[in-house]
Amino acid sequence: MLRRPATSTQITHLQRLWLYGLVGLVIAFLIIPCLIVVPMSFSDSQYLEFPPRVWSLRWYEAYFFSSEWRQSTWVSLKVGAVTTILATILGTLASYGLHKSTNVFKPIVRGMLVLPMMVPLIFVAIGVFFVYARLGLNNTIAGLVLAHTTLAIPFVMIAVGNGLSGFDMNLERAARGLGASPVRAFLTVTLPQIRISVLSGMLFAFVTSFDEVVVSIFVSSGANSTLTKRMFANIRDQVDPTVAAISSLLVVLSIVVLVAGQFIQRRGRSGPSPD
Amino acid sequence: MTVMVQETEPVVLNNSLLQRSRNLQGISFIGLSLPAAMLVAAVLIIPFSWLAWLSLFDAAGNLSTENYVRLLRPAYVDSFLTTFKVAGLVTAICVLLGYPVAYLLSQLPQRATQILMVFVILPFWTSVLVRTYAWLVLLQRQGIINQWLLSSGLISEPLPLVHNMTGTVIGMVHVMLPFLILPLYASMKAIDPVLLRAAANCGASPAQAFRQVFLPLSLSGLSAGIALTFVLCLGFYLTPALLGGGRVAMWSTQIADMVAKFANWGAASALSVVLLVVTGGILWGVNRFMRVPDAWGGKR
Questions:
Q1: Could you list the residue ranges that cross the membrane (chain A) (predicted)?
Q2: What torsion do the CA atoms of B184, B186, B189, B195 make, to the nearest 10 degrees?
Q3: Residues of B numbered 138-197 whose beta carbons fall under 8 angstroms of chain A's beta carbons: which are they?
Q4: Which of A23, A47, A210, A229 shows a CA-CA span of 20 to 30 A to A99?
Q5: A50 at the B interface (CB within 8 A)?
C-alpha cells in the first residue's frame, strides 16, 4: 500500500510520509484548541487541568445558576433571532434584485453591500458607538440588531447569490408568461427553488450575530450585554473557569451548526425535487 | 441533397419599447436592494464618513492636520511597525503551515479530502472568542503546555507564552490559517493533473514537476490567500487584545483604547482613516495587478 504511487507523478505514499506527518501536525494545531476546552470544563479545580484530576459539573452549575450569564445568553439569542430574520429578508431581496437588475449602478451597490464583510470590525464598532451615542441606541437591543444585521447581510447575499446562479430564470419567466404577478412568481417559483441557499444564509446570519464580539463590546453593556461581551470582559479581567463551560457549549453549538450546514448542502446537492 | 432555404417574414421588434421595459426592470430590481443598502449606509458608511470628517479638526474645532501629525509620534510609529510585523509574521507562518495542507487536500481522493476538509472548516465555524480563550488556557503559566514542558524536563521555569507577542502570533495564526488554506485549495484544485503527468513523461522527477509546474501555477491562489490574510491581520482586534495582554500595541487595539479610555475621537478617527487607506490600497493593488480568484466563492 505504501509503495503504491499516490499521484500522477508516480510518487509513492512512502516517499510522502513526511507530508502526511506535517499535515497531521497542522490539523492537530487547528483542531485541538477547538476541542480541548470541552474536557477541561469538567475539571473541579480553579486552574483548568487536562486531563482533570477530579471531574465535576461545578462550572456548568456556575453558568446555569448565575442570573447574569443567563440574562446575557437570552440577550444574545434574542438579538440573533431578530438579526437572522431581518438579514435574511434584506439580504435575499438585495441578492435577487441585483441578480435580475441590468442597471449600471449594480456593481457599486453590490460593492457597498459586501463592505461590512471587508472592513475591520473595529471600524464598524467605533463608528456605530459614535453615532449610537447621539441617537441613544447604545446599550439597546435595537442598536445591536441593526449593527448585526448590517454585518450579516453580505453572508446572506453570497449564499443566496450562489443559489440564484444555479437557478434557471426562464422558469420564473414562464410563470410570468402564464400570468403570475412578479411577487407571486418569486414566491411560488423562484423562492422554493433557492430555499436551500436561503436556509444556509440564515445559518450564516445567526452565527454572525451570535458569535459577534467586537461591536458588542462597544455598544452593549449592563442588562443588555451579549454573551460574548460578558465572556470577553471575563477573559480579560480574570481566567474564570465558568467561561470554559460556556465555551464548551458554544463548541457543541458550532459542531451542530456545521453538521446542519452540511446536511442542508447535501439536501441541496441532491437537487430540488421537480414536483 | 439540396438545402431548402425557407423565406420567413422578418420579425419586427418594437425596439424602443423593449429598451424602455428593460431600463424599467433595471431600476425596479435594483430598488429591491435599497433597504439593505440604506442599512449599510446608516450603520457603516455615514458613521465612518462622519468620523473621517471629524479627524480633520483639532480639539478647538478648527480645521487642522493635528490629528494626523500626532500619528508621527514614536508611540504611534511603533504601533504601525508592530502591526506590520505581526501581520507579516502571522502571514508567513500561515503560508508555511497552510501550503502543505492545501496541497495535500488538492491531491487526495475525494473521500479523504472531504474528511480532512471538516478539520479545516470546524475552526472556521468555532467562535474566535472561544478559540482565543482556549489558547489563553493552554499557554498560561500554569497551562498545559508549560506543565508538559516542565514535567518533560525541557525547561525549568515556565515560559512566558501569553500576554505578549508570542501568544498573539500563535492565536492569530490559528484564526487566519483557514483563510489562507481555503482560497489556496480552490486554486490548486483548478490545476489540471494532466500537466503534472506530462511533466513526468518528459522526464521530470516528482520534485522537479512540483517545482516547475505545480508551484508556479499555484502562485495566483497563494497571493490571493496572502493578501486576504495580511489585510485581515492589519485590522484584527480580538486576539491581540486578549492574548497580547496590553503589551502588543496594534493599530486596532490603539483605536479601541483611544475611544474607550481617552474618548479621543479625533486621534482614533485619524488612525482609522490611515488604516483604511492602507488596507484599501493593498486590496486594490492585489486586485489590479493579480488575477485573484474569488476567495469567498461568491459570484460577482
A1: 20-42, 79-99, 111-135, 141-164, 203-223, 243-264
A2: -60
A3: 138, 140, 142, 144, 174, 177-178, 193-194, 196-197
A4: A210
A5: yes
What would the pLDDT profile of B107-146 be if each residue is shown by its tens digit? Answer: 888 888 988 998 998 898 899 999 999 999 899 888 888 8
Neighbouring residues of B235: CB distance < 8 A, sequence distance ≥ 6:
A119, A120, A121, A122, A123, B251, B252, B275, B279
Dist. CA A165–CA A158, nearest whole Å: 10
A149-158 pLDDT, tens digit each: 999 999 999 9
Q: To the nearest whole number, what is the mean pLDDT of chain B?
A: 86
Please name the residue of chain A whose CA is at the shortest distance from the CA of residue B199: A9
Closest chain B residue to the Cα of A247, Cα to Cα: B130
Which chain B positions have a beta carbon within 8 Å of A90's beta carbon?
35-36, 39
**Strand partners of residue A55:** A43
Q: Which of the residues A7, A121, A239 would you substitute to probe the B interface, choosing the one with the greatest number of B C-beta atoms within 10 Å?
A: A7
Domains along chain B with CATH numbers: 54-289 (1.10.3720.10)
Q: Is A194 on the interface with B (CB under 8 A)?
A: no
Q: Please answer yes or no on whether A100 and B100 come within 8 Å at the CB atom.
A: no
The predicted pLDDT at position B103 comes to 93
Min distance B101 CA to chain A CA atoms (Å)? 5
Out of B33, B232, B272, whose CB is closest to A123?
A: B272
Cα A20 from Cα A16, distance rounded (Å): 7
Q: Give pLDDT tens digits for B20-38.
A: 777 777 677 888 899 999 9
Q: How far is A274 from chain B (nearest CA, A)?
A: 25
Task: For A68-269, give the CATH class.
Answer: mainly alpha
Set of chain A residues whose Cβ sits within 8 Å of the Cβ of B25? 100-102
The answer for A 55-74 residues in CB contact with B (under 8 A) is none
- Give yes or no for A239 touching B (CB within 8 A): yes
- Closest in B41, B103, B125 to A207, CB measured: B125
Reading the block at residue A215, the C-alpha cell is 461591536
Q: Sketch the domain layout of chain A as residue ranges.
A: 68-269
Render pLDDT for A114-153 as a digit per residue (tens, 0 to 9). Answer: 999 888 899 999 999 999 999 999 999 999 999 999 999 9
Q: Which residues of A188-202 are buried (b: 16+ CB within 10 A; e: fewer)?
A: ebbeebbebbbbbbb
pLDDT in tens, A200-241: 999 999 999 999 999 999 999 888 999 999 999 998 887 788
**Which distant-in-sequence residues (6+ apart) come within 8 Å of B144 by Cβ?**
A36, A49, A50, B137, B138
pLDDT tens, position by position, B48-96: 999 999 889 887 778 888 888 888 888 889 999 999 999 999 999 999 9
A152 touches chain B (CB under 8 A): no
Q: Residue A241 and residue A247: Cα distance in Å, rounded?
A: 10
